[in-house]
User: Which sequence fits this backbone?
């Protein structure tokens, strides 16, 4: 049986007395173990930067209409977990230029995000994280703000026009959950890193160790793209241990993360998309953006330079704000988890 538990609900539960949460038999043990973090945020939000212009998309080479797969059928009435109430839902199998294993994207007929936008944003997620994503659902925003959540299967549900930072955040959850017996965010080293630090990136990172992991991933992606320089307004010092933990994970080796092939052999959890593309594009090479005047992450100074040059795309010119606070808007993910009971 499926139980949907939006994270804003989870957040409330994490702050109520333990006895109350434990009395809710619909919650799995993982939910009950989650607690809000007490470290202060370094910034209120990620409003000083955006990954949108930094990550060029892998281009779709094939898009084939398919019948709705089970994760998408479950989003339709009369399912008790219905999230799509339009008269139609379409599903495509999309093959990107850097991976031979297609991705399934379902779009509800009244979703604000077009199928083209969903394909582009999924293609912008670095292949080292994208390889863990299962089915993507684009749904109507409805009441509230744009939001998204990821389930343990790696399926991601987007409501409204979620920006690329949210896609990276959710794809990080898919990576985090890939080994059901050993979530990355459940690693002892991650808890120790948090304990050793004196801040988390932003307010949303305070939600729990899972959300802190996903938010730090967004920071890490930006930092790797800027030769170790953190986003405007952020510095490494108070969250150095968290950065060190993440930078030591195989998935965050820059040449892999930003590579041109989802067929990656490493010691990380088993990915969902692992077949080499039919044709590798050698022009997709790894280069960095100019380093803004920001504090550097010393442990990452010697990393290879890099971002993929996909050879096209006017929206991939790498221009970033010269200084912080220039009006980028980040739509937060209101994450959620599904427990199979
Ligand atoms: Zn999340």
Assistant:
């Amino acid at each position: 049986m499926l139980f949907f538990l939006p994270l804003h609900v989870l957040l409330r539960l994490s702050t109520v007395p333990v006895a109350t949460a434990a009395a809710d038999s619909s919650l799995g043990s993982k939910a009950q173990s989650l607690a809000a973090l007490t470290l202060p945020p370094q910034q209120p939000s990620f409003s000083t930067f955006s990954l949108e212009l930094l990550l060029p998309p892998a281009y779709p080479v094939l898009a084939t209409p398919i019948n709705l797969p089970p994760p998408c059928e479950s989003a339709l009435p009369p399912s008790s977990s219905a999230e799509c109430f339009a008269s139609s839902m379409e599903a495509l199998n999309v093959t990107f230029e850097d991976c031979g294993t297609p991705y399934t994207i379902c779009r509800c007929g009244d979703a604000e995000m077009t199928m083209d936008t969903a394909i582009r944003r999924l293609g912008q997620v670095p292949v080292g994280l994208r390889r863990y994503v299962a089915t993507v659902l684009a749904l109507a925003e409805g009441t509230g703000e744009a939001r998204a959540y990821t389930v343990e299967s790696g399926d991601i549900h987007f409501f409204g026009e979620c920006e690329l930072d949210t896609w990276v955040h959710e794809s990080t959850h898919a990576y985090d959950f890939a080994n059901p017996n050993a979530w990355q965010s459940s690693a002892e080293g991650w808890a120790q890193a948090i304990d050793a630090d004196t801040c988390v990136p932003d307010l949303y990172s305070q939600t729990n160790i899972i959300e802190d992991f996903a938010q730090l991933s967004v920071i890490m992606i930006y930092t790797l793209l800027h030769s170790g320089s953190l986003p405007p307004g952020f510095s490494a010092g108070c969250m150095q241990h968290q950065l060190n933990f993440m930078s030591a994970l195989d998935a965050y080796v820059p040449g892999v993360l930003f590579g041109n092939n989802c067929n990656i052999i490493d010691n990380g959890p088993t990915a969902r998309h692992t077949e080499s593309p039919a044709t590798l594009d050698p022009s997709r090479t790894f280069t960095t953006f100019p380093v803004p005047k920001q504090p550097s992450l010393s442990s990452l100074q010697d990393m290879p330079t890099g971002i993929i040059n996909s050879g096209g795309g006017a929206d991939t010119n790498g221009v970033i704000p010269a200084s912080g606070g220039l009006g980028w808007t980040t739509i937060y993910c209101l994450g959620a988890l599904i427990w199979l009971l």
Q: What stands out?
A: The chain is about 25% helix and 15% strand. Confidence is low (pLDDT under 50) at residues 1-29, 292-341.
